[in-house]
Amino acid sequence: MINLISDTVTKPSQAMLAAMMAAEVGDDVFGQDPTVNELEAYTAALFGKEKALFCPSGTMTNQIAIKTHTQPLDEVICDYTSHVYQYETGGYAFHSGVSMNLLQGTNGKITADQIAAAIKPDYDWLPVSRLVVIENTCNKGGGSIYQLPEIQPIRALCSEKGLALHLDGARLFNALVETGESPSDWGAAFDSVSICLSKGLGAPVGSLLLGEAAFIKKARRLRKVMGGGMRQAGYLAAAGLYALKNNVDRLAIDNERARKIGAILATKDYVETVRPVQSNIVIFDLAGETTAADFLEKLEEKGILGVAFGPQTIRLTFHLDVTEEMINRVEDTLENW
User: pTM surpassing 0.85?
Assistant: First the structure.
């Protein structure tokens, strides 16, 4: 079975497993796991931040960031398709007591002008605009990519208006292998950054929250109260280190494979539209009355798994566990549908 449901389905390679088993570990709640400490220091330096915090998931890093940047009765400004709004179980309300100010961006991307227009005036019957969240790449936008020139006006606006700026960089490295931009430049543009290790990078578990020392000190306490304090987490951190040191450049392969599949789908009469393919995600809308459920059932019969993103919308996601032979099978299947 060719699993294109998500890049979260990847499994550790033998080399990654060997690195995990060789890890030196301690108790991370006491700050005494040397491999966790190495991962945090390595990633913080990569992005030019003072500190990093290793967490079980990207949802946790995002929710900690929101909680750290805000207080109850504040609001978060983001695109309506953002992961922090769509897929984190309303955690912004549960953990932080904040509301969402949702913008209608283009393929998940919002602009400084849109944000400026959305900032609330200082009236006591309105929430306080406090935090902007940007997602790169934009999952529900079809894996669309922000580039730094698009972020810089947003950074300037947030600095001028006193808003914090957080990056949900769950698939940021898929963007960076396309743009050639550096992690440190992206780190400099944001007050906090979340990086996921368990998607295209291939680690089994884990995300990192990056920021300045005082921010991470508070975030560490919030990680504990959310149940994210781990003990001998170095076995997992070793997988993250391996991923960051060995699996970043190869993300370009996943992006290119997605483009090839997107180009095939764009020529087919059973497809109404294909979102612009910029990274490792392909989202397409079916023509006629074919439902996503029907299409996926037939696709599974041919040995391929995808996921519904709407009544007639499908997402296919490419990752390191997809071989060249598998890609050829996917191409043949879609060509001859």
Answer: yes
